Amino acid sequence: MAQAWNLLAGFTGFVSVGQQAFIGIGAYALFLFAIHLSVSPFAAVLLGGLMGMAVGAVAAPALFHLRGPTFAIGTWVLAELFRIAITNTAWLGGASGLTLARVVRGVPLQERTRLTYWLALAVAVLAVGGLYGLLRSRLGLAIRTVRDNEASAQSVGVDVAGVKRLVFVLAAFVTGCAGAVVYLNTMFVTSTAAFAVDWSALIIFVVIVGGIGTVEGPIVGALLYFGLREWLADYGTWYIIALGLI
Predict the structure, then answer these.
(1) Quick one: which H or E segment has residue 139?
(2) CA distance linking residue 224 with residue 197, whole number of Å
């Protein structure tokens, strides 16, 4: 998730505070495919990413008419629209949410944990390796040129609108996969939790503290965050204050 946001904000220059939209979409896609279409929830992780990608492709043209703070607010509004819609739709679980308990009843806990771990690792490797490869390509150069100066990028033949849409869609895909894995692990999802702005706050903290605009930054930031969470877990609100100070 952090690498996806880093690609969008750190390398392309578009700050989103609505990445929770794709976390929730990826999670709900997994649950719906698993519950209603009898797809293996482990295979549905990829479908969660693809659903996030589809929504990103539809939303991108409208969002990229916005600039600066209004773009950030627009992404937040997108997440809120999905949260409200799902909360008021009984078929999607409504406010009560959805559970995978019946779907994975025949899968031993140890096997489920092992598969979830490997899926999480695969998504992480895909995000880091994909970002590294992307930045070393011609497209990566175009992305950074768009970040530095859109007019200059356009003057040398870069399809600015196409680059921005592609980056947004790629970030939506990775975030959707990550959201699917997170809620596959918990086996229970609600719209309030999946579309909470806390997800974006956490992602932004991890990327900025680790080093925005670098491949290794989100990795360092994630290690620091989880280390602090374990160390300060018994200190109540001081934990939040420490994160804010850092």
Answers:
(1) helix 138-148
(2) 21
